[in-house]
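It is worth pausing here to work through a concrete case rather than discussing structure prediction in the abstract. The textbook approach is simple: state the sequence, then state the predicted structure, then interpret. We follow exactly that order.
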Amino acid sequence: MTQGSLFGDNDQSEQIIVLSEEGCGELIYYPNFFSQSEADQYFNLCNSDYISWNRETISMYGNTYPVPRDTAWLSKDGLSYTYSGIKMSPDPYPEFVREIQNRIETIEDFEFNSVLLNRYNDGSDKVAWHADDEKELSEIVNIASASFGDSRVFQLRKKPHAKKEKEINLEHGSLLIMKDPLQRNWEHQIPKTAKKVGPRINLTFRKIVY
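Step two, the predicted structure:
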């Protein structure tokens, strides 16, 4: 399978400041970071043989449960990643993932070396409240999340509050930037929904250090 550059002419400059608090981090949303045609092609490439999807399992209170979404882990430097007791071995970046990261680095030079991919197949797939603060991440945690496919709601709450405080619909071809120290002060989730929704894929770029 071969591919050419997907870069096209689109206005990626529109941004929405969802959250900006001194000392608490910043959340920036680009609703049209990728053009419609780019987003369609990236979605299809993520569903191709380039990506090896898995449905991991997690152990809780002596029982084993499937993680409610498909995942894949890629690393430019061959680095593994552990979260919720799951250790993920890396696959190398396909060229189109490098291309997505290169596009992101035109606005933010975070020196990402790895990416966690999540695929939500329908409204029952989700990710619970969490912060991306695993030990493998550097002390300064910046994350960029590109979304392709059906829109899903992203919710945010400040630690240690129990209720959501902000939410935003993550659209096809959008980009969400979570700037340090957001992960130390806020949690986020993608809740399940009773609405009829199709698959959504997101690529969350991050920097792993050991």
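Step three, interpretation. The two ends are 34 Å apart (CA to CA). Helices lie at 36-46, 95-104, 182-185.
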